[in-house]
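Postdoc handover notes: sequence design on the structure in folder B. Input tokens:
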């Protein structure tokens, strides 16, 4: 199997590459990443030199570059993770979300179409495309799409293009929609790493609104195992939800982190709410469990302490992001970044 992984220098992508090199050592992986602010090759230092791992510095919106790379590698499949992924940034700069998430996905579909029936396109999407839930109920694969942020609207657009490629051209495409991930290498703008990092430095912890928004958290390695299962066993044209039945109020997670680090709840600062802030996400992943036999391996009681430990052991990783030094790692080795 030769697999292109887009966005492999990001949070989930880099965890996925580590997971696959360990669990599918015979696979050849091509990490295709533009190295935006969210891409960090330091996440993949341990993979350098592995003959089954290749890095290509490229922008998925660049059709010519994609044509050249698809012709060069002749892959069997793609796991498409590259995206602009942060909701708050999408409110400030929706254009770059449309560019990468919508246009970039279509560029990749154009290349995939040329490879014919034997090529599989796994599109990694999010539960946010379903919108927001009240205090009861779950998102199933049949829940109508109702995105509320420019981020989730652009992911919905990409989902619909992937669906259309299957319906129109009979392409072997599959869509996964996962709940919130947490774990090592998550950029410290997202809730859990931001709160851990701020608490460690005795800085204030900004909680949006009343802190009673609910998210359904999955340890990132479980997302990686689910994506592998879907790539290997999923049915063309299907959608699979991924989640771990693990709902938490934001404020309770923040308090758990403070407790675990021995810090005072006085660090909590309630701030102005995110515009259009979805109230609750909750995923019904029973289709994936029943049809493909996947189940998560980590409980939150295991995964959260593992994550807090990782950030405590890797303060330098976070500091290099906060000071911008992480962008230099690529430049020292390869030259100027595409987007700098
Ligand atoms: P991330 O922001 O950490 O990483 C995104 C990666 O994509 C970065 O390495 C970045 O350099 C790369 N990228 C961005 N634009 C690109 C472009 N034009 N060309 C090539 N590469 C580009 O994101 P993440 O949290 O790892 O999320 C990965 C995927 O999983 C996304 O598609 C996201 O929508 C989805 N997802 C994320 C979560 C979550 O909780 N983080 C949950 C469900 C689904
Ligand atoms: O400082 C903060 N304070 C706060 O209260 C931040 C950064 C977040 N929050 C709240 C907003 C959300 O209710 O915490 C919750 C989680 O926020 P994020 O980490 O920004 O994640 P979310 O908006 O839920 O989206 C995430 O999950 C689905 C990912 O960023 C997406 O890429 C993924 O698709």
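Designed sequence:
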């Amino acid at each position: 199997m030769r697999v292109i992984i887009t966005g492999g220098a990001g949070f989930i992508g880099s965890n996925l590459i580590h997971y696959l090199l360990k669990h599918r050592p015979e696979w050849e992986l091509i990490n295709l990443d533009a190295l935006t602010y969210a891409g960090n090759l330091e996440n993949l230092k341990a993979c350098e030199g592995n003959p089954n791992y290749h890095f290509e510095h490229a922008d998925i919106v660049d059709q010519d570059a994609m044509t050249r790379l698809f012709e060069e590698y002749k892959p069997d499949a793609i796991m498409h993770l590259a995206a602009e992924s942060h909701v708050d940034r999408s409110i400030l700069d929706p254009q770059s979300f449309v560019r990468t998430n919508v246009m970039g996905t279509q560029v990749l579909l154009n290349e995939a179409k040329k490879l014919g029936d034997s090529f599989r396109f796994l599109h990694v999407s999010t539960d946010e495309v379903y919108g927001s839930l009240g205090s009861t109920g779950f998102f199933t694969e049949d829940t109508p799409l109702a995105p509320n942020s420019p981020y989730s609207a652009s992911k919905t657009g990409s989902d619909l293009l992937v669906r259309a490629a299957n319906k129109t051209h009979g392409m072997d495409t599959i869509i996964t929609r996962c709940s919130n991930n947490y774990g090592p290498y998550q950029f410290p703008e997202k809730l859990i790493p931001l709160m851990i990092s701020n608490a460690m430095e005795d800085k204030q912890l900004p909680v949006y609104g009343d802190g009673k928004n609910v998210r359904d958290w999955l340890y990132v390695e479980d997302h990686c195992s689910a994506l592998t299962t879907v790539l290997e066993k999923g049915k063309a044209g299907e959608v699979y939800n991924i989640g771990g039945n693990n709902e938490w109020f934001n404020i309770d997670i923040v308090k758990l982190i403070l407790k675990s680090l021995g810090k005072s709840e006085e660090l909590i600062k309630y701030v102005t709410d995110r515009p259009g802030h979805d109230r609750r996400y909750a995923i019904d992943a029973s289709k994936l469990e029943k049809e493909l036999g996947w189940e998560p391996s980590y409980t939150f009681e295991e995964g959260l302490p593992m994550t807090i430990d990782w950030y405590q052991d890797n303060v330098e990783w976070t500091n290099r992001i906060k000071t911008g030094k992480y962008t230099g790692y690529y430049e020292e080795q390869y030259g100027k970044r595409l987007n700098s």
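Context for whoever picks this up: DSSP finds twelve helices and twelve strands in the chain. Don't rerun without checking with the PI first.
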